[in-house]
Every structure is written in structure tokens, then in C-alpha cells.
Amino acid sequence: MTNTNQSQTASEAARKAALAKQAAPKLGLLTTEQKNHALLRMADSLVAEAESIIAANTEDLQRGQENGTSASLLDRLALNHKRIEAMAEGLRQVVELPDPIGELLEETTRPNGLHIRKLRVPLGVIGIIYEARPNVTVDAAGLCLKTGNAVVLRGGSSALSSNKRIVEVLHAALSETDLPADALQLVEDPSRASVDEMLKLNGLLDVLIPRGGASLIQNVVKNATVPVIETGAGICHTYIDASAQVVMALQIGLNAKVQRPSVCNSMETLLVHRAFAERHLSMIADQFVQQSVELRGDVEARKLVPAFKEAADEDWDTEYNDYILNVRVVNDIDEALEHIRLHGTMHSECIVTENAENAVRFLQEVDAAAVYHNASTRFTDGFEFGFGAEIGISTQKLHARGPMGLPALTSTKYCIQGSGQIRG
Amino acid sequence: MTNTNQSQTASEAARKAALAKQAAPKLGLLTTEQKNHALLRMADSLVAEAESIIAANTEDLQRGQENGTSASLLDRLALNHKRIEAMAEGLRQVVELPDPIGELLEETTRPNGLHIRKLRVPLGVIGIIYEARPNVTVDAAGLCLKTGNAVVLRGGSSALSSNKRIVEVLHAALSETDLPADALQLVEDPSRASVDEMLKLNGLLDVLIPRGGASLIQNVVKNATVPVIETGAGICHTYIDASAQVVMALQIGLNAKVQRPSVCNSMETLLVHRAFAERHLSMIADQFVQQSVELRGDVEARKLVPAFKEAADEDWDTEYNDYILNVRVVNDIDEALEHIRLHGTMHSECIVTENAENAVRFLQEVDAAAVYHNASTRFTDGFEFGFGAEIGISTQKLHARGPMGLPALTSTKYCIQGSGQIRG
């Protein structure tokens, strides 16, 4: 049973989720114009209040330095005028996107005269647990509010001062609009307990979306009783078939590995057909090495290129997110498919081939969110797919799979109009 | 990481889920004709083997009698030639339904030439945990296999002998078809441990669908780490507005309560606008009493009809599934909406009114899978909605909401064809 009358003694997460839930119905009824107006006010306020946000961010950076946070992490955490302008620009782009709420998905009139419509509605209250840069705070808020959803944000403790100030600024902006400010909530308790509690807020949260590293996501998937949309982990393969064009195979492979190794749609393992490998693996390997990629091969690959390190068993199941690549030589497409079945994470997989039959087989038989023929796995992305936004990349099969745009943040409702029909 | 090489020491549930997972890719590639042929063979075999199924069922019935099972439960458990023919007929009806697999849902060509298709694919392996009659075994198997999904069934221990024999018969039928028999698995361990284990088979099961009473469903929702589609609980309301036609309101209310009180889309609480109640509640109450319905009223309802029992606080949150009805008098539609928001389970809700504005408000503002204007909540059903089948009624907002037909048992996959595109 839903309990929105959370008392003062309830935890911060439960209290704030209850406030969000109370705001959600009103938010769900706003027009697109009302929501867009609110998003634009949010964008303007971020820019107007940039100084105070940067001041709060400085506190986070100082605390990070004292705690020995790495330089690369501090760089991700740091805000400046340009980054704040980019956050505001992100909100303005969401304004431009079509509003999915209210869309008529199905319509039928039954023989008994019942008129049934299936309409797109908000999910309700979305919990987002993340650890990344403060821009996620603005990004997630914009996408959720545009789709009529209230949102409870729980960001990483390293960005707490920044996130608090950002949400203060956004609340002040919303207070001058029709969008209830309570629809946006930030859980400030930096302890693990606040995350643990959010995972169990059934009746207050309709869905949880974790965004972050594998351990954060696995904690949510394993412990949440609230429904979860799993995002993230990608052990992506590129299979170079016997008939692949050499230059194309090289370019796609290089792009999938080195264009941005730290992200989930980058390649971790290159599978190469023996016929191709015998002629071209040595050249391909040279090109990867020139891009500072460490190569780890199976026995057959190392016969062809003895310079490869030996790949350990666990390497085939490791998401490096780094300049490291496994290379395996396979005898045919079946071996490639079997390898992907055993070691893939159902994220993004690619075949490079001129053989139409093998391309069809690969596209059909690989069980993944995105399966590519002759294109880099790096394209698995909401913007690259033309969605204009992305809340994450779902690696589960329920509800949403692959890059999630605005419709992934919606549910449906059947509205049935009759004239006194009863069931016989 | 997925592990399909479950050793002999793995539990029965894990071993059988692994077999199902291995069978799933082959099943997913079958044509509609191949799947339909298999379903028809299953139907024919059930009828041909009816005697042996009835013999096994007799064992269940005897065990039930020895254990003191109630007569109504024994009746639900009992199989005879007519019921087995009905199970076979159910499979034949699934054959007639369109196959959703392979459906092209979206198609786009991006400015860079990437051709992106979003296709409907099977979910993979579906776990179904149920306690109901043995017909669920056949029903669930038919719906899952038609949609290219392997299925791991875990039925109630009271029907174990029946379920074992049914699955033996279906396996024998499948062995003469292209559909891999391993795609259908029955977990026979009757202990609670086998359920507990299924809840955690991430990587082997893609989704769990519990079917049964509230405690079974809550156990699955609260403890599963595999994604769940929640079905079931329905505390459904009918709100009679001031302007409702009297006869229509009476007929819809009676139908929602007494046509089949034991099911989730039946009504538990009648909300009546004061203006309507003052004129008609006494007459309405008489009609319910004539249908053997016990009535429990709030203070205001009891002022109008002193014969009502007093409704206790917890009654408003109770799914009776019985000839009991709560009655509350409200001052306006806002009070009705607030009551439903606090006590509804987002299943099915109805307004009876001639006021178009109130009808629109109710349809828009009530957050439920199915919202009715001037029709009985009893229509929330896959067959009544024209889906031709129903795997259950989802009361969650993710993936599927409301009656679930075949498309609810599918996922999607992006297939991307390029000509060497790389990301810049």
C-alpha cells in the first residue's frame, strides 16, 4: 500500500520520495508548453547563478584534493562557466524534443462498443542513482521533467556541494513556473544507507535507473525491490569475417577501440576469421600498437603475431574501458557467434563482412541491444540514433533496450469509454 | 557473466534454466509456421494422452484429499476430458494469433547513411512461478513458445503429478518437431528452495512472471534479482458521480462486484457522490444485498443506510475477492480521486457519469492500468481487449501495463547496417 504521509521521522530519502510522489500527478497533467517554459527557466537560472554554482563546486574540489582524489576524477568533477553553459544548453535541447506524453499508441472499438485507447503517460517518480559529474543532475532532471515524471536524484558524495547548489537554483527557477518544485528532489545524505533505502521505496518510486560503474549498477540490480532499468556494462566485440574489406575492418576496429575507450560501447575483444588473420592480422596489430593499444591474444593469434601478450581466461570477460584489446582467431562465423554468446554482455556487437549471408546471420543470431554490420559499435548512443537525448543505454530486455530516449521514461494507460457495458 | 555450463551439482532449477537458455537461440530463429506446427502437435498430444494425464491428476487429487485440501481447491485442480480438450483448444487459439516476432517497429536512415531498424525479438527465457490450476502449465507454455521464448515453469506442488505428466506429453510432441524440447522446462522440486533459487538466476532467466495470490507475487517482487513483471492485486473502485444514470450505475456496479468476485478486476469499493447517494443509495444497497453482497459503509454511507456494517480502516485496503463491498459517500470527484490515489492498486478504476468534464478528469487523473468511463472494470482482460490471449495483467508501469498479450512477451533489438561508418 502506498503511504505518502511519511512522518517527520522517516528518512530523508523516504520523505523526499513522498514529496515527489505528491507532486507527480500535477506534473503529469501539465501541457508541453508549461513543461518547456519551466525547462527554459531552469536553463536561464543556471547561467545566471553560475558564480554561486562554481563556488559550491570549489568546495567539492577542495574536499576531493584533501581526500586524494585523482586528477582525472577532479577534472570530471570541475565546473566552469563553459560547462555550466553546456548544461543549460542541454536543457534547451530537451525543450526542442517532441513531448511523448499523451501520444495515442493504439485505438480500437470492440464489438460491444467499448472504445479503448492506449495512451503514453509518465512513469510517475523516477529514482536516479549516479556517481558521475554534476551535469548528470541537470541532465536527468531535464529528461524526467520533460516526460512529466517527478525525480529523486541521489548523486555521488564527491559532488554533493555542487549538486545541492544546482538543485537550489533549479528549485528557485521552478517556483516561478507551473511545474511543482517538489517534483525535483535531491537526496543529500552521502552515506550508503540512503542508497540502500531508495532501493526499497516501493510505492513511492516507480523505477530506479542506476548510472555509473559496474559495482554501483550491480548493487542496485541485486538489492532493489523497486523495478530497475539496468544500464551500462559493455563487453563489445568486433568480428572481422573472411571477406571483410581490409581498410574498412581496420578503421571500424580502431574506431571501436580508441575513439573513446572509457565508454561502454567501445570494443574489448576483436575476433578475426583465420583466413583474414593469416593475411592481415600483423598489419592490423601494428596499427593498434601505434595507437598505444596493448594487445592480448589467444594461442592462434599469438602464432600469427608473437608480440601479443597471452590473454588470460578472465580477460575475455573484462570490460577494460582502457587501451587494452583481446584478439582471438576463429575458424568461422559459428565460433565467433559462440564466443559472443559466452562472453558478450548483450550491449553492442559488430560484424565486418562483404558476405551478405553471414551479415544476415550475425544480425539475426546475436542477442544484443545493438548489432552492427560494417559500422563501429561506438554508434550505440541516443544522439547518434537520432533520439536527441539519452538517459542511458539499457542492457536488459524488459521495458527498454539499447539507447533510451524520452519514450523510455514513459508508461502507458488504457482509457476505456463505454455507454453502460457490463461483462456477460 | 552468463554461465550455461551448469555442472551436474547445480540445482534442478539452475540446470533446467541452463538447458532452456541453450535452446532459446534456436527457438528464436524458427518461422511462425514451425512454431505453429509445434503448438498444434502439443494440442493433439494432450488430447491423445488425456487418459494418462487424468491418471496423474488423480494422484494429485488423492494427495490433496489426504492433506485436507478444500473442495473448491480440489475442483480447480481436477482434470477431465473436457478440461483437457479446453487446454488443447487454448493452444489452437494461440496458433491463430499473429506472431509478433520479427515485426519492424521503427526504421530510420541517419544522415551518415547508417540504416537502423528496431525489430521485435523474443525476451529469451521466461520463468513462470504459479500455483494455479494445471491449465496454466499448457497456457503459459503455448504463449511463451509462440513468441519464441524458452520457458521454465515452476507450478504449485499440489498439481505436481499433473504438471509432470503434461510436460512429458508436451516434450514427446515437441521431439517430433523443429522446436527444441529443451525450450520447455518444468522445475519439479516442490520445496520453497526451488522458488527462492529461480528468483536469483540472473543470466539464465531474462524475466520472471509470478501468477497467483498476493503472497506469492510479493515474495517474487521483494526477493527476485531477475527482472519481474508484477501481476495481480486489484483493489478496484467504481465512482458513481452526481449525474450518473441510475440504472447504468447500478448495472455497472453490480457487474463489477458479483459477476466474478474472485478475480482481480472485480470491484472492492463503491464511491458514491453525496447527491446521488441521498436519492439512490438505499435502492442500490438493496440490489447488492439481493445478490448476497455484504456491505460495509463509512460514517456518511451508514447515515443514509443504517443497515451497513461499519467499514474498518483496513477494509479500504483489502482485496476481498469475495461477496463483500465497501461503500463510501464522497462530496465531489476530488474526494473520489483522492481516495483512489490512496487506496487503489493501479489496476482498474471506473467513473459512472453523464458529466463529460468529470469523465475526462477521471480518465486523465487516475493513475491505473485501465480507467473506465461508463463500463464495468471486469473488462480488464486480454480477451476482452481483443488480444486473443493473456499471460496476466501487469500492475507495474515498466515494460507492460494492463492485460498482457503476446507483444508483452517480446523485447526489441536494433539492427544497424552500414558501409564502414566510424564515429568522429
TrEMBL record, chains A, B:
Q: What EC designation does it have? A: 1.2.1.41
Q: Which of UniProt's keywords are assigned here?
A: Amino-acid biosynthesis, Cytoplasm, NADP, Oxidoreductase, Proline biosynthesis
Which GO terms are recorded in the biological process aspect for this UniProt protein? Answer: L-proline biosynthetic process
* Classification via PROSITE patterns: PROA
Q: Specify the Aldehyde dehydrogenase domain's residue ranges.
A: 6-292
Q: Has keyword Oxidoreductase?
A: yes
Q: One GO cellular component from the entry? A: cytoplasm
Task: Write out the catalysed reaction.
Answer: L-glutamate 5-semialdehyde + phosphate + NADP(+) = L-glutamyl 5-phosphate + NADPH + H(+)
Provide an example Pfam family for this protein: Aldedh
Q: Where in the cell is it found?
A: Cytoplasm
Q: Which family does it belong to?
A: Belongs to the gamma-glutamyl phosphate reductase family.
Q: What is this protein called?
A: Gamma-glutamyl phosphate reductase
